Amino acid sequence: GQNIDQPTEMTATEGAIVQINCTYQTSGFNGLFWYQQHAGEAPTFLSYNVLDGLEEKGRFSSFLSRSKGYSYLLLKELQMKDSASYLCAFNDYKLSFGAGTTVTVRA
Amino acid sequence: ETGVTQTPRHLVMGMTNKKSLKCEQHLGHNAMYWYKQSAKKPLELMFVYNFKEQTENNSVPSRFSPECPNSSHLFLHLHTLQPEDSALYLCASSQRAPGGEAPLHFGNGTRLTVT
After folding, report:
1. Residues near A49 by beta carbon (within 8 Å), at least 6 away in sequence
2. What are the backbone angles phi and psi of residue A6, rounded to the nearest 5°?
3. Is A99–B40 a contact, with Cβ atoms under 8 angstroms apart?
4. Residue A22 contacts B, CB cutoff 8 Å
5. pLDDT of res. B30
């Protein structure tokens, strides 16, 4: 997990957009995952990118650039329930996680 | 309901105690995992089992002993732990071991405190 970087905390207003960046370094790559984890709960799967480009799922989108070792998770039309930690993880022969980005949504 | 159930949710134990964490998955998956989650740190992979066979031991101290009697159940036996072992222990399962697009499904974890 030491070769994945994501911001520690982000704060945004309800209804706004927030972009969580994730950079990684690996010699082997087989996809990138984003998970959401509410306090005291299990991480839940949000998205998976294996090819370059943008994957959209409702209010959440995830982008990947393999050449740059870069991904982002875009949260649109933020709601209070989106306050959580967002974990970036890349897949070589096992999943390696970042430390997570805590997003706080304010009214 | 996550499909992966962990018990107990909370555990407080002394350094000389022996306890076990239990995980059960109801998803028909073939791979199961133990992760350690400490505050502000990345999830640390501890063990991986694929079709009941251990395929990964990520240099975990021997005071942690995993057991996987079948593809649906996973245990983590604890003994002679240290205070720095206090953390959230997460169990997860996936259709198969990492290497593909199969996502992990996590349980809610056991919050362990070693006194």
Report:
1. A31, A32, A55, A62, A63, A64, A71
2. -145, 155
3. yes
4. no
5. 92
For β-strands B110-114 and B10-13, DSSP reports them as: parallel
Q: The tokens of B43 are what?
A: 């999830």
Cα distance between residue A78 and residue B92, in whole Å: 28
B69 touches A at CB < 8 Å: no
d(CA A20, CA A34): 10
Q: Does A70 touch chain B (CB under 8 A)?
A: no
Chain A residue numbers touching B104 (CB-CB < 8 A):
33, 35, 43, 45, 95
The answer to whether the Cα torsion of A28, A32, A37, A42 is positive or negative is negative
pLDDT > 80? residue B1: no
Mean pLDDT estimate for chain A: 93
Question: How open is the CA angle B90-A96-A33, to the nearest 5 degrees?
Answer: 90
Is some CB atom of chain B closer than 8 A to the CB atom of A50? yes
Q: Do B43 and A87 touch (CB under 8 A)?
A: yes
Nearest CB among A42, A50, A95 relative to B98 is that of A95
Token code pair at residue B41: 């740190």
Provide mean pLDDT across the span A2-16.
93
| Per-residue confidence (pLDDT) for residue A94, from 0 to 100 | 77
A8, A30, A48 member nearest B103 (Cβ): A48
